[in-house]
Write a structure and sequence with these properties.
With about 500 residues, the protein is of the alpha/beta class. Helices cover about 35% and strands about 20% of the residues.
Length: about 500
């Protein structure tokens, strides 16, 4: 993959249904996805395709989802005519690391992967190391591999009984209710760790990388704090991930590991060997903070920045139009997140302009497309596909006041990408106020007049070399307006 790769996430079953609808009876399995579709992915600038939810569905998880009160109440509000038959099991309640029969077989997946790879696109799949589905065979075959008890723990919300009468804990994030379709693994049991390593080695040939679910829950101290007396094994001397990642990369050197991680533990998780970690901090600051606070986050160490996964949407977050409140603000947030160093994650629902987030258990038959949103992203993706945004040098810049009194320059986020004889200048008014300011560009052609091309409109603006060098370029921008200028020298 390129430096700062573009990753597209699709919900496997929704996407595959769409493929069947678009291409007709020729689509039976993943192996049948046509070359023309993959060529379009490449021409749109995507380096990786995250097929979220490819593994075999848990039938018990499906029933739990179909009877889940909150899921059904939410769907009644946003999709009044839905039926329970449209609800499936959670992709993160995994009962087998084999391809779900709706999509085909492992062999069909490999054929699809080969088509992607021929077009220099990597295939990303999911790995859940913290828990399995409640009906995973190991929950009754090897209950000691899970957080379990032969005696009733007295917490029916947190534990359930397997068919042999052993109490098994549901997986959980300590800040939320348990996931009732999951069975929590005992990660201090050496047998469990070996089993997870074996699964990684089983999955690795089927893809080019893995997005690893809730990685921070697998840290030794977090697991110990979460499960305490139920562990029955000593704390391991080493964390799970460094050895597991090394084992995979010894056989597949270019394999990519992406970590879903929160709680400010990103740097720690990167140190364990992950190639990229979620940048939830940036996402939250785009939602809740001001430009000064956003810029402070972007001042972090360069290597850390390069190993982050930037996003304004994923299957766990509200869709951008709802989260940011308007198209203008969501487009400005995209301009921030996707013109930084690091991997850049887009979702199919984001590119289509979905108005609300659907539960990952819901598989709609038809998706509406917002033409304005789709047109924006087609143009934006084309702009940031330029080699400068991938092989260039990124530098955070500062805006300054035009007259020393107007403070609206503080609303501006700006940086440059420089490569060979090209400089891209990104300027974003990340506020609800009109802003007037000046920005300086370090690297300039030494000509009397300098021309800057607006990448979105194609229009040109000009300034003298002396003006740009000594005073900077004067700009006035509307609320949440942004510009990407190109300068050749």
């Amino acid at each position: 993959m390129r430096t700062n790769p573009h990753v597209l996430e699709v919900n496997a079953k929704i996407w595959f249904h769409q493929m069947k609808r678009d291409f007709g009876r020729s689509i039976v399995t993943l192996a049948d996805i046509p070359e023309s579709y993959i060529v379009k992915l490449k021409s749109a600038g995507f380096d990786a395709f995250w097929l979220m939810g490819v593994w075999e569905e848990s039938l018990t998880s499906r029933q739990i989802a179909r009877n889940d009160g909150p899921i059904n109440d939410y769907l009644k509000k946003i999709v009044p005519n839905y039926t329970k038959e449209d609800v499936f099991g959670s992709p993160y309640s995994i009962c087998s690391y084999n391809v779900d029969k709706y999509l085909g077989t492992n062999e069909d997946l490999l054929k699809f992967k080969a088509k992607l790879n021929e077009n220099d696109i990597s295939l990303i799949l999911d790995f859940v190391g913290n828990h399995f589905s409640v009906d995973h065979p190991l929950t009754w075959q090897e209950p000691e591999m899970f957080i379990s008890s032969k005696e009733d723990p007295g917490d029916s919300k947190l534990f359930y009984q397997n068919k042999n009468g052993v109490w098994i804990a549901h997986g959980k994030d300590p800040y939320f209710d348990p996931w009732t379709d999951s069975a929590q693994l005992n990660l201090f049991n050496p047998k469990t760790r070996q089993m997870l390593e074996d699964y990684l080695m089983q999955i690795a040939p089927l893809c080019d990388g893995l997005r690893c679910d809730m990685v921070m829950l697998m840290l030794n101290n977090v697991h110990r704090d979460n499960w305490g007396k139920y562990l029955k094994f000593d704390t391991p001397n080493e964390e799970f991930w460094p050895g597991a990642i090394q084992k995979v990369k010894e056989k597949y050197p270019s394999f990519t590991f992406i970590a879903e991680v929160y709680w400010g533990l990103e740097a720690e998780i990167q140190s364990l060997g992950f190639d990229f970690t979620y940048d939830k901090i940036l996402y939250d600051r785009l939602l809740f903070s001001n430009p000064t606070q956003i810029a402070a986050h972007l001042g972090a160490e360069h290597l850390y920045q390069k190993k982050t996964l930037r996003f304004i949407a994923n299957h766990d977050e509200e869709v951008p139009l709802a989260a940011f409140g308007s198209k203008e603000r969501s487009f400005a947030a995209a301009a921030v997140a996707y013109t930084l160093s690091g991997a850049r994650l887009f979702t199919a629902s984001q590119l289509c302009g979905d108005k609300f987030r659907l539960p990952i258990q819901y598989q709609p038959l038809v998706r509406d497309v917002d033409i304005e949103v789709k047109t924006f992203y087609m143009k934006f993706l084309d702009i940031i596909n330029h080699p400068c945004f991938h092989g260039g040098q990124w530098a955070l810049k500062s805006a300054k006041s035009c007259d020393g009194q107007n403070l609206s320059y503080q609303n501006i986020l700006t940086w440059t990408w420089t490569q060979n004889t090209t400089c891209k200048v990104v300027v974003i008014n990340y506020s609800a106020e009109q802003s007037k300011f000046r920005i300086c560009v370090d690297k300039l052609p030494k000509t009397e007049n300098i021309f800057l091309k607006d990448e979105f409109t194609g229009s040109m603006i000009s300034s003298s070399y002396e003006e740009l060098k000594n005073k900077g370029l004067e700009i006035e921008m509307a609320p949440y307006e942004f510009k990407i200028y190109s300068v050749d020298f």
